Amino acid sequence: MLESLKRRGFMLVLSSPSGAGKTAIAHRILETEDNMSLSVSVTTRNPRPGEVNGKDYFFVDMPAFQGMIQRNEFLEHAQFCNNCYGTPREPVRKALEEGKDILFDIEWQGTQQIAENAREDLVSVFILPPSMEELERRLFSRAQDSKDTVKQRMATAASEMSHWNEYDYVIVNIDFEESVKNVRSIIQAERLKRQRQCGLASFVNSMRYQTTD
Ligand code: 5GP
Predict the structure, then answer these.
(1) Does ligand 1 come within 6 angstroms of the Cβ of 86?
(2) Cα(183) to centroid(ligand 1), Å
(3) For the whole model, what pTM was predicted?
(4) Whose CA is nearest to atom 14 of ligand 1?
(5) How would you label 41-79 residue by residue, b for 16+ Cβ within 10 Å and e otherwise?
(6) Residue 96 Cα, ligand 1 centroid: separation in angstroms?
(7) CATH of the domain spanning 2-39+99-208, picked from 3.40.50.300, 3.40.1650.10, 3.20.20.70, 3.90.1150.10
(8) Which atom of ligand 1 is nearest to the CA of 105?
(9) Atom 7 of ligand 1 has which residue's CA nearest to it?
(10) What is the domain partition of the chain in residue ranges?
(11) What is the pLDDT of residues 60-96, one digit of tens each?
């Protein structure tokens, strides 16, 4: 890329009630987008079968999490279903400066905090399930959580969904492939935003000197 066409990266936040499909969409996007990486969160919840420390989450205990809060190491953090979740600040700062985009799988409280502190760098997408029946079916078929956990997550789904109108984009996840396609369109458009193309002014200026009459 031309040096002067460099741009600033952005934070693509995907939020949805558990089971609406955002994690699957996020993984597919990451497989195909070169310039995008996942923000790996820190959590106090126990790992699910198959989850890998440092890849899916950094799994820590409560004192370690509180230490990170005290040292101001989180860009945002929130409590969800009796567990704590937070985004480490430093990798995000570095990626944005290097013109790399970052994908976040976080809930609405964290999204609100990012919106308050870094609105220009945020692109937020809310994923809705096609129906509550389908949401319940997906949560049960995931079979990673206990029945009690599924019940608890269904109970919080309605209040989580009430935040759909705080997001820049909303996708109803009826068809997985179609939803992935829609997220890709959002990424393409957001990369072209004038404000993110921080090298444009000098690029255009340099062309002015090259024109002949
Ligand atoms: P799960 O336990 O199913 O992995 O995640 C529960 C909820 O916490 C999901 O809605 C997920 O998006 C959200 N979450 C995961 N990491 C973070 C984080 O770092 N910050 C916030 N605010 N929410 C998170």
Answers:
(1) yes
(2) 19
(3) 0.91
(4) 106
(5) bbbbeeeeeeeeeeebbbbbeeeebeebeeeebbbbbbe
(6) 21
(7) 3.40.50.300
(8) 12
(9) 107
(10) 2-39+99-208
(11) 999 999 999 999 999 999 999 899 999 999 999 999 9
